[in-house]
């Protein structure tokens, strides 16, 4: 029984406030994109949102990583998915040129 406790991985609980910050930043992403669609691109609020929301989101998300290896694995997976989707869209004639 004692040995099982020693070999079990320690799972850190996520801080609720960090998840709430990420949710708030995601709402800002949606708001920023919505403002862009209705022609409010030069608005002061639009500029403020785009000034900090993505760098802060990346920073807060990084606080949840366990190891550098995990970070590289997730980045590799995201890059592969991006390349697959972009390749499929390019073949369909809808990708970035």
Brief synopsis:
The protein is mainly alpha-helical and 97 residues long. It is 73% helix and 0% strand. The protein is built from 4 helices and no strands.
What are the defining features of this structure?
97 residues; mainly alpha
Oligomer: single chain
Share of β-strand residues: under 5%
Order of secondary-structure elements: HHHH
Helical fraction equals over 70%
**Mean residue pLDDT:** 79
User: What shape does the CA trace take?
Assistant: flat
Rounded to the nearest angstrom, the distance between the terminal CA atoms is 60 Å
* Number of separate helices: 4
What is the makeup of the main sheet? none
Structural class: mainly alpha
Point out poorly predicted stretches.
Answer: none
Number of strands: 0
- Evaluate the radius of gyration: 19 Å
Descriptive report:
The chain is an all-alpha fold and 97 residues long. Helix content is 73%, strand content 0%. It has helices at residues 2-7, 16-37, 44-62, 68-91. The protein is flat. The chain starts with a helix and ends in a 6-residue tail after the last helix.
How is this fold's topology laid out?
Layout: H1 2-7, H2 16-37, H3 44-62, H4 68-91
Helix pairs in contact: 2-3
């Amino acid at each position: 029984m004692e040995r099982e406790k020693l070999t079990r991985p320690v799972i850190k609980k996520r801080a609720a406030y960090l998840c709430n910050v990420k949710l708030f930043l995601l709402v800002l992403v949606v708001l920023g994109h919505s403002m862009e669609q209705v022609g409010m691109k030069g608005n002061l609020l639009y500029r403020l949102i785009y000034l900090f929301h993505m760098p802060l989101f990346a920073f807060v998300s990084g606080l949840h990583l366990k190891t550098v290896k995990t970070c590289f694995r997730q980045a590799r997976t995201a890059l592969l998915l991006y390349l697959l989707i972009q390749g499929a869209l390019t073949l369909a004639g809808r990708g970035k040129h």
